[in-house]
Design goal:
It contains eleven helices and four strands. With 269 residues, the protein is an alpha+beta fold. It folds into two domains: 189 residues, no CATH class; 73 residues, Alpha-Beta Plaits, CATH 3.30.70.120. The chain has a four-stranded antiparallel sheet, covered by helices on one side. This is YitT family protein. Pfam families: YitT_membrane (PF02588).
């Protein structure tokens, strides 16, 4: 049963990686478009050095993956290496193929969707194929606001560099493709469920509870942890939010307690 589960996840990771390669080589790259993160940097270096994109996708992502290897379990290693290998090989062999669309806006749309769905699928099933892009998806719901800002700056810098290299018309299409890819990756990773269960750990639990009730009308369940706080109020909280208000709720909680811990669970109905 366990081997079947691993094979099931591996199949989706490989599918997501191949779909990402299709989005890059058959839609975005032929129109001199790129996205942020390591993928965008790979496109730039591939163009400037006149070498295959697949090579840079592998070489640029590998150091980030090796840097994080201690936090990877064997299955995550398998999914990550399989996804990165399929992405790189797919881009390598698809490079000679002609673009599937001639119109830049259509190519940006199709490429952004394919790349985003591909990255999100790989993340959902335990892989990791774009160091900066994947890290941004994984930190957007966590408490590391500084890390998220740095990743957005990195992505913005790559897109800006693309404007200087390819031209500003292409840069505008690239920004559109990047935003679309980011949103599609979010949907693919988290699913289309509208409801999220939010687990909050904070020493300022009562203040957060009152703020969520006043600002969002949320009823917060206090999970008693008297041994941790000594006052019986509970340090752990549980509440439900919808995906449209999730980022705002997280931001308000972090303003009240920057040291809090937040975990999000998607509720499928």
């Amino acid at each position: 049963m366990g081997n079947m589960r691993v094979s099931y996840r591996l199949a989706f990771v490989m599918f997501g990686a191949l779909l990402s390669a299709v989005g890059l080589e058959l839609f975005l790259v032929p129109h001199s478009m790129l996205v942020g993160g390591v993928t965008g940097a790979s496109v730039l270096f591939s163009y400037l050095m006149e070498m295959r994109l697949g090579l840079f996708l592998f070489l640029f992502n590998l150091p980030f993956i090796l840097f994080r290897y201690r936090s990877f379990d064997p299955q995550t290693w398998l999914m990550t290496l399989a996804g990165l290998s399929i992405l790189s090989l797919g881009a390598f062999f698809l490079h000679p193929a002609p673009a599937l669309m001639d119109h830049s806006l259509a190519a940006a749309t199709a490429g952004g969707i394919a790349l985003g769905v591909g990255i999100g699928t790989v993340l959902r099933y335990g892989g990791f194929i774009d160091a900066a892009g994947s890290a941004l998806m994984l930190t957007k719901s966590a408490s590391s606001e500084k890390t998220e800002k740095r990743l957005w700056l990195l992505n913005g810098g790559v897109l800006l560099a693309g404007g200087f290299v390819f031209g500003w018309d292409e840069a505008l299409y690239s920004i559109f493709a990047f935003i679309l890819a980011y949103r599609m990756a979010d949907l693919s990773m988290n699913g289309f469920a509208l409801t999220r269960m939010m687990w909050i750990s904070s020493e300022r639990s009562e203040e957060i509870r009152l703020a969520l009730r006043a600002r969002f009308g949320k009823e917060v369940v206090m999970l008693d942890d008297s041994e941790s706080t000594g006052n019986g109020n509970g340090r752990f909280m549980l509440c439900t939010v919808n995906r449209m208000e999730q980022s705002k709720v997280i931001k308000d909680i972090q303003e009240l307690d920057s040291e809090c811990s937040i975990a999000i669970h998607v509720v499928h109905r």
